[in-house]
User: Fold Chromate transporter from Paenibacillus montaniterrae.
Amino acid sequence: MQSDQLPAQSKRQPRLKALLEVIAVSFKLGLTSFGGPVAHLAYFHNEYVQRRKWLDERSYADLVALCQFLPGPASSQVGIGIGIVRAGLWGGLLAWLGFTLPSVLALLIFALLLQNGQLADGGWLHGLKLVAVAIVAQAVLSMGQKLAPDRSRATIAILAAAVVLLWQTAFAQILVIVLAGLAGLLLYRHAANAEPISLQISVSRSLAVWCIALFFVLLAVLPLVSQYAGLDWLNLFDSFYRVGSLVFGGGHVVLPLLQQEVVAVGGISEQTFLAGYGATQAVPGPLFTISAYLGYFAQGFSGAVLATLAIFLPSFLLVIGALPFWNALRSSAKVQAALAGINAAVVGILLAALYDPLWKTTIMAPIDFVFAAILFVLLVFWKLPSWVVVLAGAAGGLLFL
Assistant:
């Protein structure tokens, strides 16, 4: 009897350990990931791929490519996906909670304290922006060496960066990824690709189908129900769910859409919204957590919780719906060829983000370049953990900038 209980117990212990590990690592990332969505992907790459080896380079790039296709916050979706791969559905939930909770709490504090729309700025904030420059530069270097190592893929990366920089619309990234996939299909369809490492997805395909169906049902039904029910909380949930479902192009795109939803209808003043915009730029974690700030001003603490859950719910439904089918797609020779081009384009998109908005808005003087270069050396050559470099950036900015 006792021997029969041991296997089940031994299975529970590694699962519990994995869950605790996921929440601890994601919470640390939630505290230290400054710089916006693209910088988050660089932080994830450094922590999950380089340091902890939870995914190999190719699997991480494939997951990023998948999430670029989905509406919603790509960095949060990548984090959810990594949590699911590591520790199942609960792992995905804890990965999201750990990464999101610090910025939600920070923005609630801003909502309580910054009633006049004033955000105290300082050298520490500029130092954190320089950390983001160093982190993204490290990711461009590391991913470029592995995902764009030859002439063709390096060309795809540069062209992708050029298009994204010169044609700055919400659909530019989607178009670039589609075209890069077609280019990869043409260039690498006959290349002998090694079988990709299979991601361990503990989600059934039937659950995946239900999640995709629920995503579309809520998107279609919520506006109708909220219109006739006349309930404030339901209107709030519908607005933020719809924004979370229809945003392509990353976290920055959500801000003007939310402004249209909550300011244009008279729910929140322009001054209050802009204060939240500034606060969101100052805190780590996903930009979608501005929903907590706006929800608080709309309906208090319950509104903050409701708006946050509503804007991230589509990401959960789509990631859970897509992951069970991803291994089969990645094993296809044609899909592998397309992914070779897409992954190179992801490097180009990252390179474009390194220049705009990070470099353009951060490297304003020689001292900025020198400090960013020092942080880059600490990351790449001294191999210091990213959280140490974040603290160094904040302290250096406070003292010298």
